[in-house]
Design goal:
Elements lengths: L2 H17 L16 H6 L1 H4 L3 E14 L2 E8 L2 E8 H4 L1 H10 L5 E10 L5 E12 L15 H6 L1 H7 L3 H21 L3 E2 L5 E2 L11 E4 L4 E5 L4 H9 L4 E9 L11 E10 L3 H20 L3 E4 L2 E4 L5 E4 H9 L9 H10 L10 H12 L8 E4 L11 E2 L2 E5 L1 E6 L2 E8 L4 H16 L10 H8 L5 E7 H9 L19
Parallel strand pairs: 3-5, 6-10, 14-15
Antiparallel strand pairs: 1-2, 1-4, 2-3, 4-5, 7-9, 8-9, 10-11, 11-20, 12-13, 15-18, 16-17, 18-19, 19-20
Helix pairs in contact: 8-10, 8-16, 11-13, 12-13, 14-15
Length: 488
C-alpha cells in the first residue's frame, strides 16, 4: 500500500476510536507490574499469576477468535495471546481492526507457556495507550541506513536490537564512575558552559553573543580552569561530568559536542592520577561488563594486569629507532620530520615534532592499556616541568585500542611560570593559531593566592563507552550525534 494511503488509514482508525469515546491520547495512568525479561526470569513464580505489562506492539497475527501479538518494553519483547471470549466482542474487534503494529498497548493477564513453549501473557484486558500515526519500517528490511539511524534515534531504538542496551550500559558506566569517585571522597560540581576565556585545551571554540551584556561568549572547550579555582578555594577533591564543545571535524572518534569528565585532587601528582585511573577503569569494566578483560572488535583488551608505562620519547624510539633525547635543536627535529614525510607547521618547535612523531609511529599501536608519559613542554602549557629535565613535563595520556582515553598532569601551580606559558600561547594565537590558549587574568589571580600541589586528569567519556560497548563509532554511543542539517 502506498505511504499516503497507510497514513490516511491510520488517521481514519484514530477518528473511529475518538468518535466512540476511546481517544488514546487522553491522560491515562497505567500501572506496570512487570517487564518482559522479568516475567521470563521469574516464570516458575509468576505462572498463572496476573501481571500488567505495557509496550509497543511489534508484531500481530490475527486468527479469527484468537490472535497473537508481541509487545516490546524496556527489557525486550513478550508474546500476548488475545482471545475474543476473554476480552469481549467489542474489545477484541477493536484489537483486530483498529490496533496496528507500532501502537502502544497496556495488557493485563495471566502468565502461561504456550504449546510451542513460549512464555506469554494470556490477555484479560488490552488498553490502547497511544496510537502510532506513522508506520514502522518494514520488518524484513529493518532500519539499516546509518544517517537515518542517527538522525531518528527514536526509530533506531525501536527497530534495532542492542541499541537500547548500549545506552543503558552508557548510563551504568557513568553511574559506576560516580560511585567510585564518591567513595574516594570526591565532590561532584558544576562549572560554567558559557565563558569569557575558553582555556584548558588546544581547540577552537564556538563563539556566541550574550545579548543582555552585549558581549561575546565562548562555549567551553574544557572544564579545567574553573575546577582548579575550586581546588584553590579549598575543595580538595572535585570532579565534573559535562558537555564541552570544540569547533572541529567529525569522525568515528570525534563529535564537536561531547562528554568530558575532569577531576582534580590536591596533594598528589600524575603518579597518583595513574593509580586512580587504572583502578577506576578496572572497576568500571568489572561492574558494567562483568570482567576486567573486554573485547573490542574481536580483540581482547586486558585491564586486569598493571597498565604499561613508557615515556613518549622511549615509545618513539621503540617504534622508529629515533632518540629525540639526542636531538638538540628545533632545526634537527624538523629535518627528521622531512626525512620521514611528517608534515609540520613553520612555528613548530622540537616538542611539537616529537608529538607528531608519536602520532605517526606509535598511537595506533597502543592496543593494550598504556600510560605514555613525560610529554614535551611545548604541548603542555598547564603542566609542571620535570625537575630533572625542564624540556619535559609531568604528564601522561592513557592509550587503549590505539585511542587516547585520558590526559593527566601534575598541575602547574607556579603563577609566574603559568603567566610565562600563557604569554607563549598568546604569541601563537597572534600568529594565527586558532587552537592556542589565551592569558586568563582571573585564573592567574586565583593562582597567586596559592594553589596546592595537584594532580588533574580529563577523560573522554564517549570513547570509554565505545570501548565497553564494542561500538565502532562515537555516534553509536551519543544519543543524538551532530549531523549536517537536512535543510528542513
Amino acid at each position: 500500500m502506498p505511504q499516503e494511503d497507510i497514513l490516511k488509514v491510520k488517521r481514519e482508525k484514530l477518528k473511529t476510536l475518538q468518535e466512540s469515546g476511546k481517544d488514546p491520547f487522553l491522560n491515562v495512568k497505567y500501572e506496570v507490574s512487570c517487564h518482559s525479561a522479568e516475567i521470563k526470569e521469574r516464570f516458575e513464580e509468576l505462572e498463572g499469576q496476573e501481571v500488567s505489562v505495557a509496550g509497543r506492539m511489534m508484531f500481530k497475527r490475527v486468527m479469527g477468535k484468537a490472535s497473537f501479538c508481541n509487545i516490546m518494553d524496556l527489557q525486550g519483547k513478550i508474546q500476548i495471546y488475545a482471545a475474543r471470549d476473554d476480552l469481549g466482542e467489542e474489545a477484541y474487534t477493536d484489537f483486530k481492526k483498529l490496533y496496528d503494529v507500532g501502537d502502544i498497548l497496556g495488557v493485563k493477564g495471566k502468565v502461561f507457556r504456550t504449546n510451542a513453549g513460549e512464555i506469554s501473557v494470556h490477555a484479560d484486558e488490552i488498553t490502547l495507550l497511544s496510537k502510532a500515526l506513522q508506520p514502522l519500517p518494514e520488518k524484513f528490511h529493518g532500519l539499516t541506513d546509518t544517517d537515518t539511524r542517527f538522525r531518528e534515534r527514536y526509530l533506531d531504538l525501536i527497530m534495532n536490537d542492542g541499541v537500547k542496551e548500549t545506552f543503558i550500559k552508557r548510563s551504568k558506566i557513568i553511574s559506576e564512575i560516580r560511585r567510585y569517585l564518591d567513595g574516594l571522597g570526591f565532590l561532584e560540581v558544576e562549572t560554567p558552559m558559557l565563558v569569557e576565556n575558553a582555556g584548558g585545551a588546544a581547540a577552537r571554540p564556538f563563539i556566541t553573543h550574550y545579548n543582555a551584556l552585549n558581549e561575546d561568549r565562548k562555549l567551553r572547550i574544557s572544564l579545567e580552569l574553573y575546577l582548579k579555582r575550586l581546588i584553590i578555594g579549598g575543595l580538595e577533591r572535585v570532579y565534573e561530568i559535562g558537555r564541552v564543545f570544540r569547533n572541529e571535524g567529525l569522525d568515528t572518534k570525534h563529535n564537536p559536542e561531547f562528554t568530558l569528565m575532569e577531576l582534580y585532587q590536591a596533594y598528589t601528582d600524575y603518579h597518583g592520577m595513574m593509580e586512580l585511573t587504572e583502578n577506576m577503569f578496572r572497576h568500571v569494566a568489572e561492574k558494567v561488563c562483568g570482567s576486567s578483560v573486554v573485547v573490542y572488535n574481536g580483540v581482547s583488551i586486558d585491564m586486569s594486569k598493571p597498565f604499561r608505562r613508557i615515556t613518549m620519547v622511549d615509545a618513539i624510539k621503540e617504534e622508529s629507532g629515533i632518540d629525540f633525547d639526542s636531538v638538540g635543536t628545533d632545526e634537527e627535529a624538523k629535518a627528521l620530520a622531512k626525512q620521514h614525510n611528517i608534515e609540520f607547521e613553520p612555528h613548530h618547535k622540537k616538542g611539537d615534532i616529537i608529538n607528531l612523531f608519536f602520532d605517526h609511529f606509535c598511537e595506533e599501536k597502543m592496543i593494550q592499556p598504556t600510560f605514555v608519559m613525560d610529554h614535551p613542554i611545548e604541548i603542555s602549557p598547564l603542566t609542571k616541568k620535570k625537575p630533572d629535565d625542564p624540556s619535559k613535563v609531568e604528564r601522561f595520556e592513557l592509550y587503549i585500542n590505539g585511542w587516547e582515553m585520558c590526559n593527566a598532569y601534575s598541575e602547574l601551580n607556579d603563577p609566574i611560570d603559568q603567566r610565562e606559558r600563557f604569554a607563549v600561547q598568546d604569541a601563537l594565537a597572534a600568529n594565527g593559531d586558532e587552537e592556542a590558549q589565551h592569558t586568563d587574568e582571573d585564573f592567574l589571580h586565583a593562582m597567586e593566592l596559592g594553589m596546592p600541589p595537584t594532580g588533574g586528569i580529563g577523560y573522554g567519556i564517549d570513547r570509554l563507552c565505545m570501548l565497553l560497548t564494542d561500538a565502532p563509532s562515537i555516534k553509536e554511543v551519543i544519543a543524538f550525534p551532530t549531523l549536517k542539517s537536512t535543510g528542513k
